[in-house]
C-alpha cells in the first residue's frame, strides 16, 4: 500500500480531517457524517468500507489510496474547480455544515446526479460515444494511470466491453500487462474475471501465462467474491481456492427435514441461473449492509451520529431494478440472524451444486456430505416453514427467489410491505404518521367535548319547549272587574261611535249624572234607584246592561227602587264620599238633560 504525496488526508466531500471511511467505487476518502449519506445512496452509487475495521484485500486498499492521493476527487468536482462556477453560487460543503440537508444534497448531486462531472459534447448517437470511450479504456488499462481509467468509467465506458477487432476485454489487457490496480478498478466496476476472449481464455489464463501469479490468484478470489463473502460472514473463514472454492458452514443445532423444507429446496433448485444470480447478489448486498452497520455502531460509540437519519435500516432502492425486486431486497432486513444464516447456507449449497454441474436428483453434494446434511436439516426446516405462503401470495418476486420472499412475507412487514421506498421517504412517512395520529387524538377529544355540549343544548331546548307549551295553554276563566277608566271610556261612546266628547257628558256608573238631581243631592240614592237584581224574565226589557262586580252579576235598569238592590250598606258600590258632590258639580256644568240614558254595550259586554 503506497500513498503518493505527503499531503494530509481529508474528507473528499466536506474537507473534514482524518476521514475513516473509503468509497471504493469513487476512489475517495470520506468522514463519518458523509459516509452516512454514501450508505443511504446504495452500493450502485457508492461502495463504502471502513479503513481500519473492515476486511480489505491488500491490493484493493492500495488502489483506493492511490486514487485518493492522485486527486480522483477532481473527477467528481470538475465543474466546481472552474472559476466561472464560483459566481453561480454553487459551493462545496464545509465540515461545519449540517448533514441534512446541506451535506446530503451536495453528495447526492456529486455522485448520484453527477452534476459536477465534466460533460462531453452532445452527440446524436450516445451508443457511438460509449463505444469510443470503451475503446479508449481498452487501451488505457495497459498503463498504470488509474485516474484516466476512472475518468473514462465515470463518462460511461463499459468495464466488460468486448473489443470487436482484438477479441478481448479491458480486463484481459490489464491481466496480461500485470496491472493489478487496474484489474481491481475494473472488477469494482463490473468486469468479469471469468469472461472468455475470442479463443476461450479468461483473464486468469492471461495472468498465469504472463507470469503474474499473484494477480491470477487475486482474479480467482474476485471470481468467487460472492460465495467467499457469504461464507466469511457466517464463519469468518474463506476457501484458499487451491483445495476447493466453497465452504459450507453448518448450524450449531439441527432440526428434522420437513416436507415444506423439501418443497422449498426444490423451488430454489428450479430457479434459472439468471434469477438465482439475482437472488445471490441481493443477499450479498444485504451482507455488506449488515457488516457496515456493525462497524458503524462500533465506531460511533453511541454518539449523536447514531440517529435515524444516519442509519440505513434496509437496502436503498436501485432504480435499475424492478419495484418487485427492490421490495424483496428491502425485506431481507426483516430476517433475524438465524433465518438469514439459513438462507445463506442454502445459497452456498445451491451455488456449489450448480458450479459442479450436479443433477437435481442428487439429494446432497458429494463433498462435505455430513456437514451439509446437518445444516440442511436445521436450515431447511426454519427456512421452509413459511415457504408455502408463496403459493397464495402470487408475487412476481417468486422468480427472483421463492424462499427469501416467503420468509419475509411471514413476518410483519409493517411500513415496508407497500412497495419500495427510500430511507428518506420512510422517515418522512413515519414522522407524518406520528403527526397524523396526534391530530386524530386531538380531534377525537374536540369531538367528545362538542358532543357533550350538543347534548346539553338539546336538554335546554327540550326544557324551553316544555315551558313554552305550558305558557301557551289557556288558563281557567277568572272574572276580573274592569278598571274605572275603561268603563268611563266605553260609556262615553254611543252605538254610532260618532258623538263628540264635548257633546256628551262623561258618565260613570259609580257617579250619577248632574241632570238627575239638583246640586247637593245625595248621590247614593239616585244610584240605588238604577240597580236591581238580574232575572231571566227581564231579558226582553229595554236598556239592559250587565256588569261584573265582586258581589255577583247584576243588571242595571232605569226606574228601580233602591230596596230592590241586594247590596249591603257597606258595599263599595253604594257608598259615596264627599267627592261625589264635587263630581256632580262638574257634571252639572256639562250635562244636557235631566235623565241621561245608558248606552248598550259593545260586543264584548264591557261598559
Automatic annotation (TrEMBL):
Segments of skewed composition (Acidic residues): 385-394
GO terms, biological process: brain development; regulation of ARF protein signal transduction; regulation of G protein-coupled receptor signaling pathway; synaptic vesicle recycling
Gene Ontology terms, MF aspect: GTPase activator activity; small GTPase binding; zinc ion binding
Domain Arf-GAP: 1-124
Compositional bias per record (Pro residues), positions renumbered to this chain: 474-484
Repeat positions for ANK: 166-198
Location of the region described as Disordered in the Swiss-Prot/TrEMBL record: 354-416, 471-501, 569-607
Key words of the record: ANK repeat, Coiled coil, Metal-binding, Zinc, Zinc-finger
Pfam family, one: GIT_SHD
GO cellular component terms, semicolon-separated: cytosol; neuron projection; postsynapse; presynapse
Polar residues bias (residue ranges): 357-374, 569-579
Coiled coil (residue ranges): 440-467
Annotated signal sequence range: none
Protein name in UniProt: GIT ArfGAP 1
Amino acid at each position: 500500500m503506497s500513498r503518493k504525496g505527503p499531503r494530509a488526508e481529508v474528507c473528499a466531500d466536506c474537507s473534514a480531517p482524518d476521514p475513516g471511511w473509503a468509497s471504493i467505487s469513487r476512489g475517495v476518502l470520506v468522514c463519518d457524517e458523509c459516509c452516512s449519506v454514501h450508505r443511504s445512496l446504495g452500493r450502485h452509487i457508492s461502495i463504502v468500507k471502513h479503513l481500519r475495521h473492515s476486511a480489505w484485500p491488500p491490493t484493493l486498499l492500495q488502489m483506493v489510496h492511490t486514487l485518493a492521493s492522485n486527486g480522483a476527487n477532481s473527477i467528481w468536482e470538475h465543474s466546481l474547480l472552474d472559476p466561472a462556477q464560483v459566481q453561480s453560487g454553487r459551493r462545496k460543503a464545509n465540515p461545519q455544515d449540517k448533514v441534512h440537508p446541506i451535506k446530503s444534497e451536495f453528495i447526492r448531486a456529486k455522485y448520484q446526479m453527477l452534476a459536477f462531472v465534466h460533460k462531453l459534447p452532445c452527440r446524436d448517437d450516445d451508443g457511438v460515444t460509449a463505444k469510443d470511450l470503451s475503446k479508449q479504456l481498452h487501451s488505457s488499462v495497459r498503463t498504470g494511470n488509474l485516474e484516466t481509467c476512472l475518468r473514462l468509467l465515470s463518462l460511461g465506458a463499459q468495464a466488460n466491453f468486448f473489443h470487436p477487432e482484438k477479441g478481448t476485454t479491458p480486463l484481459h489487457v490489464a491481466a496480461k500487462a500485470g496491472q493489478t490496480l487496474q484489474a481491481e478498478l475494473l472488477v469494482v466496476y463490473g468486469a468479469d474475471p471469468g469472461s472468455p476472449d475470442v479463443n476461450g481464455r479468461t483473464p486468469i489464463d492471461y495472468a498465469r501465462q504472463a507470469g503474474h501469479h499473484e494477480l491470477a490468484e487475486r482474479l480467482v478470489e474476485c471470481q468467487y467474491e460472492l460465495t467467499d463473502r457469504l461464507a466469511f460472514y457466517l464463519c469468518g473463514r474463506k476457501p484458499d481456492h487451491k483445495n476447493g472454492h466453497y465452504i459450507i458452514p453448518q448450524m450449531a443445532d439441527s432440526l428434522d427435514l420437513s416436507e415444506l423444507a423439501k418443497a422449498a429446496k426444490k423451488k430454489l433448485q428450479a430457479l434459472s441461473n439468471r434469477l438465482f444470480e439475482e437472488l445471490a447478489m441481493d443477499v450479498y448486498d444485504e451482507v455488506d449492509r449488515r457488516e457496515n452497520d456493525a462497524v458503524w455502531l462500533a465506531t460511533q460509540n453511541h454518539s449523536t451520529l447514531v440517529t435515524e437519519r444516519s442509519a440505513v435500516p434496509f437496502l436503498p432502492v436501485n432504480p435499475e431494478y424492478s419495484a418487485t425486486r427492490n421490495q424483496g431486497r428491502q425485506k431481507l432486513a426483516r430476517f433475524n440472524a438465524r433465518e438469514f444464516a439459513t438462507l445463506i447456507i442454502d445459497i452456498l449449497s445451491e451455488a456449489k451444486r450448480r458450479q459442479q454441474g450436479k443433477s437435481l436428483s442428487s439429494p446432497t453434494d458429494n463433498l462435505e456430505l455430513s456437514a451439509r446434511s446437518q445444516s440442511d436439516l436445521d436450515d431447511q426446516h426454519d427456512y421452509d416453514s413459511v415457504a408455502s405462503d408463496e403459493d397464495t401470495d402470487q408475487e412476481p418476486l417468486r422468480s427472483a427467489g421463492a424462499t427469501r420472499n416467503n420468509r419475509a412475507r411471514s413476518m410483519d412487514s409493517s411500513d415496508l410491505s407497500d412497495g419500495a421506498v427510500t430511507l428518506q421517504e420512510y422517515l418522512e412517512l413515519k414522522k407524518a404518521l406520528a403527526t397524523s395520529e396526534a391530530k386524530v387524538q386531538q380531534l377525537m377529544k374536540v369531538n367528545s367535548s362538542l358532543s357533550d355540549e350538543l347534548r346539553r343544548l338539546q336538554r335546554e331546548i327540550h326544557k324551553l319547549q316544555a315551558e313554552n307549551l305550558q305558557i301557551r295553554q289557556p288558563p281557567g276563566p277568572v272574572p276580573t272587574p274592569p278598571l274605572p277608566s275603561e268603563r268611563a271610556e266605553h260609556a262615553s261612546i254611543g252605538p254610532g261611535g260618532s258623538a263628540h266628547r264635548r257633546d256628551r257628558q262623561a258618565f260613570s256608573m259609580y257617579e250619577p249624572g248632574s241632570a238627575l238631581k239638583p246640586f247637593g243631592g245625595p248621590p247614593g240614592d239616585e244610584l240605588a234607584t238604577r240597580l236591581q237584581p238580574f232575572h231571566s224574565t227581564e231579558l226582553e226589557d229595554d236598556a239592559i246592561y250587565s256588569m261584573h262586580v265582586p258581589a255577583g252579576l247584576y243588571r242595571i235598569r232605569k226606574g228601580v227602587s233602591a230596596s230592590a238592590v241586594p247590596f249591603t250598606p257597606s258595599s263599595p258600590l253604594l257608598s259615596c264620599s264627599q267627592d261625589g258632590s264635587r263630581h256632580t258639580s262638574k257634571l252639572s256644568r256639562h250635562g244636557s238633560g235631566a235623565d241621561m240614558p245608558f248606552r248598550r254595550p259593545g260586543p264584548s259586554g264591557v261598559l
